[in-house]
Amino acid sequence: MFKEAVALRQAVTPDKAQDIERTFKSRGFPPLLRGSGETFKKAGALVEAARCYAQIGEKQEALALLEDCYEHRCTSMATLKAEPDFDVLQQEPRFQELLRKMGLL
């Protein structure tokens, strides 16, 4: 699916697609997700940023972003408990506390 994603991205910005493909081939998927996480964070899309960090195992960063999002009352957290991207956080005490605060436990 990666090649399809790059092909789709090329339709919009060919230079960016080449950068993505080059990064993936040389360093793998985690740097791509980390970069996307930073981009989302700067744009204020905290749940999306947290999703990126959770997927690469950077739990503390993901949790900090989700806690910040909770403080800002992000509506995109309503399905947090059911999101497979956050499965890696399910056993973390901070995640459990966040779910309790949201009334999802």
Report on this structure.
With 105 residues, this protein is mainly α. It has one domain (2-101). It has 6 helices and no strands. The chain has helices at residues 2-12, 14-27, 29-43, 46-55, 59-71, 93-101. Helix 2 (14-27) crosses helix 3 (29-43), helix 3 (29-43) runs antiparallel to helix 4 (46-55) and helix 4 packs antiparallel against helix 5. The N and C termini lie far apart (35 Å). The model has no long low-confidence stretch (mean pLDDT 85).
Main sheet record: none
What gyration radius follows from the Cα positions, in whole Å? 15 Å
Uncertain segments: none
Name the shape in a single word. Answer: elongated
Separation of the first and last Cα atoms: 35 Å
Helical residues, percent: 55-70%
- The quaternary structure here is single chain
Tally the structural domains.
Answer: 1
Strand proportion? under 5%
N-to-C series of helices and strands: HHHHHH
Please report the number of helical segments: 6
Number of strands: 0
Supply the helix-strand structural class: mainly alpha
Please, what is the average pLDDT?
Answer: 85
State the main characteristics.
single chain, 105 residues, 6 helices, mainly alpha
